[in-house]
Design a protein that fits this description.
- The protein is mainly alpha-helical.
- It has one domain.
- The chain is built from 8 helices and no strands.
- About 25% of the residues are buried.
- The mean pLDDT is about 90.
Length: about 170
């Protein structure tokens, strides 16, 4: 696995991402972020709080689908309750994530774990849209076995995204 990550890093170093990273690192916003020692830890903290908010809402919806919690609420009610939280959290994650990229572009853009995490996020967004459509079509108070399996898979996917975010700091760049 480490050899694969190393090869991915070496390939990233041959792309235009290196020049893009260096250019971003010289922009006024990047310089402001990097010269204020408190900015990166503050933005990372905000990013983690938004991640916790998003994961908490996703977890509650998926645990309801799995029949673990909230049995007295319909699947549609649960979705309507938590989806606004997920949307606002995604917006916060997008803004804080962009600030982290601008603040440390080489660390992020030339990092194989970062790109794996971004791929997982795309999968999570597509899964969330498909999953919400399936949940919205449910008229019964309990979900089917396939929907429960999908809920479990989405929880595992979010755990992988969070682990990837943590591992970004330790990947070879």
């Amino acid at each position: 696995m480490m050899d694969l990550l190393y090869e991915f890093t070496e390939w990233l170093r041959t792309t235009q991402l290196v020049e893009l990273s260096l250019w971003i690192g010289e922009t006024w916003l990047s310089l402001i972020i990097v010269t204020n020692f408190w900015t990166i830890p503050t933005v990372q903290t905000i990013h983690i709080l938004f991640l916790g908010l998003a994961f908490g809402a996703v977890l509650m919806m998926n645990l309801r689908v799995m029949g673990v919690v909230g049995g007295h609420h319909s699947l549609t009610e649960t979705s309507k309750r938590y989806m606004p939280w997920v949307r606002w959290a995604f917006l916060g994650l997008l803004v804080s994530g962009l600030l982290l990229i601008i603040g440390e572009p080489v660390r992020e853009l030339i990092n194989p774990i970062f790109w794996i995490k971004m791929g997982l996020i795309i999968v999570a967004i597509v899964a969330a849209v498909l999953f919400q459509r399936a949940v919205a079509g449910q008229t019964a108070s309990s979900a089917s076995g396939g929907l429960k399996l999908g809920a479990f898979a989405i929880i595992v996917l979010w755990l992988a995204i969070m682990a990837g975010g943590r591992w970004i700091a330790y990947a070879p760049v």
